[in-house]
Amino acid sequence: MTSAGFAARHLSKALIAAGIGGVLAIGGAWASQTAAAGFAKQIGFSYLQAFMFFFSLCVGGLFLVLVHHLFDAAWSVPIRRITENLACLAPVLFVLFIPILVLAPSIYPWMSIVPPESDHALQSKYPLFTPVGWYVSTVVVFAVLTLLSFKLRGHSVAQDQDGAASHTRRLRFYAAWGIFAFALCTTCGAIMWMKGLEHQWFSTMYGVYYFAGSVWTTLATVYVLTLLLKNSGVLSKVVHRNHFHDIAKLLFAFTVFYAYIHFSQYFIIWNGGMPEETFYYVKREVGAWWGVGLLIVFGHFLIPFLALLRIDAKVTAPVIVPVCVWAWLMHFCDMSYNIMPIFRPDGFKLTITDIGAWLFIGGLAAAAWLKGFGSNASFPIKDPRLGESQGVHHHADDHAHEVAAKHSK
Length: 409
Known about the structure:
Layout: H1 3-32, H2 39-70, H3 80-87, H4 90-96, H5 98-107, H6 120-124, H7 131-162, H8 165-193, H9 206-231, H10 241-272, H11 275-283, H12 288-308, H13 317-339, H14 352-374, H15 386-389, H16 396-408
């Protein structure tokens, strides 16, 4: 099966999921609106929660592409089209962010503070935490991510045609400055869109915290996608056991890294004991949020850590596929833990609106990924590292051309 065939086979399913999700989100928000929380708030918070989940996959995909070129990696060549097209979801996600731009005054409490000078925390974050600053920073974040991701995929696809080494040099150039732009944009997005729900609180680790969870979830997604593409014949000639082992090793590493960052943030705030900081976690120890917090401690770290500890588990599908599905569930809980206590202070509650918003954004994001993936070769067929990724360290160019020739047939 070709990449185009794989995309055509699943595209309609993604669009159907998006359609069902849109109906559920709007219908659920309309039915559950109250005097205290109208339609805008009901759908706004659910939509933001789902958006930050799928924005994570875009962020994680871009990071994996950047790291590939920065370290001149060979092992990740066969899976690079998966991550390149995840990164290229940026403009689609910007379009999907428009409802949040419209509903922002109903979602972010700080936008309703009049005059802004009456709030010291808001005043100290001037000019970012102003309506103009918020909207401008949002446009800049998506513009930079779109430019970077499309340049990286553009040169990668162009190399499929001529095999020129100049594309590799350009890819390294974009990765060199792109890693800094990526860090700033990811941090700004996480702070302005998610942490900004509670503008009084601050954390110097929040950007890294969101980044760690994003890459962790993306690695789980890439593992499942790679397995599906291999089993369907799309990547069967270039993806081998070692590639799955390498993806799983990174998944294991980011399991630990995320736990370290989240624990460090909590420990520093707990140790300082300052009311300006502790209120964030105090709010998340009320009602069912306490249980969600414990679930993140054990489910986000301990369960996947123990499951991935053995070497053979990393390449055993019946073990690692449930872990990857579990990772999606844990990341959803993580996004809910960060966003929903403002809207539902009494405790965690999963509603039809939440499910609908997740299906709507996820379905459209999946459709966009499938369309991008199906429009080009399923892997970089003339990448100079392709032979090395197959375990061939001598006459790599000849082997790369041989693999490309087989794929073209």
